[in-house]
Structure formats: C-alpha cells, structure tokens
Amino acid sequence: ELEQKNINLLAGDHLTPEFMKLNPQHTIPVLDDDGTIITESHAIMIYLVTKYGKDDTLYPKDPVQQARVNAALHFESGVLFARMRFIFERILFYGKSDIPENRVEYVQKSYRLLEDTLKDDFVAGSKMTIADFSCISTISSIMGVVPLEQSEHPRIYEWIDRLKQLPYYEEANGGGGTDLGKFVLAKKEENAKA
C-alpha cells in the first residue's frame, strides 16, 4: 500500500529536520519502503520494478536493453529535466518574470533531440519502460511553459498519445505535469506584478 505525502518546496517542507533525516540532500522524491530509504526518481523506479515487478519489461535485465533504458533516463535528467529546471527555478525561487530566449532555445533543442530519439514507439525502443515514465513527467510539465509544436514534433505527440492510453496515466501523470506548468506560468505573472 502506497502512502503519498505531498512536500511543498516553496514552503520549505524539504528543509525540516524530519525530512532531512530521510534525505540530507533535501530533494524530492523520497521513498521509504519499510525503513529502506531510496532517493531520486530514477533510483526509486528501478528499485520498485526490480523488487516488486512481475517481470522485467519496465526495466529489462538484458544488458543491451537495460543500457538503452539507462541512457534514456540520463537524457531525461541531464537534458530534459535540467533545461526545465533552468526555467522553473528562476521563476519559482528567484522571483523572475522573464524567460531568457537562450533558455527557451535550449528547451526547444531538447524537444528536437527527443523527436530524433523516438525512432520506435517508446524512448528506449519498441516497448514501454520506466524511461517513458520519467520523460513524460518532464515533457508534460515543460510543454505548458515552452510550447511543443505538433507540426515540428509529430513523433513526440504520437508517443504522448500512446502513453495517455494507459489506464493509470491520468492518476500517475495526467494532472501533475500540466498543473505544474500552469503553476509556473501563474507564478511568472505574479512575479511580473511584484
């Protein structure tokens, strides 16, 4: 049974002594699995599918397939998420109301890289893996702030549509990513009025 606790970063929930005991790096997410503490979303996903998965579909044991998944996870954290963070942090934590053009261009370049990567139905090949879960969470968050043009990125839109067909998509990702993008835009407007 999963018990989810929401952590409000803007309120500093991640800086409380209780949270710092779980994760001294004070980052989210954190998983407490009966006393086993795992931090960082990729590590959490790998842990969960390795420990509880019915098979290795989401995180293959085959070294070549696993390397492709790992490469896609690194692409998500090192390119997609990093470029989103460069925009979101300045608005959420530093009170900025502008998005420098070079940061928009970096995000647009990451869209092109993802578009070029999607040679198959999913980011790491022909089957869905945890890399898709990771990439969709970032893409659905940033595309509300830096528009993703369907005409320029048809494979990304087809991939998003495939993932939206999953019965658990809305619960797992549906509103969260979209809501984060809307929140950042609202905060940007609020900062402009300050």
UniProtKB/TrEMBL annotation:
Residues 1-56 form the GST N-terminal domain. SUPFAM superfamilies: GST C-terminal domain-like, Thioredoxin-like. GO terms for biological process: glutathione metabolic process. One of its GO terms (molecular function) is glutathione transferase activity. Gene3D superfamilies: 1.20.1050.10, Glutaredoxin. Residues 62-194 form the GST C-terminal domain. It catalyses: RX + glutathione = an S-substituted glutathione + a halide anion + H(+). Keywords: Transferase. The keyword Membrane does not apply. It comes from the Eukaryota. Pfam families: GST_C, GST_N_2. Its EC number is 2.5.1.18. Belongs to the GST superfamily. Theta family. Homodimer. This is glutathione transferase. It comes from Anopheles funestus (African malaria mosquito).
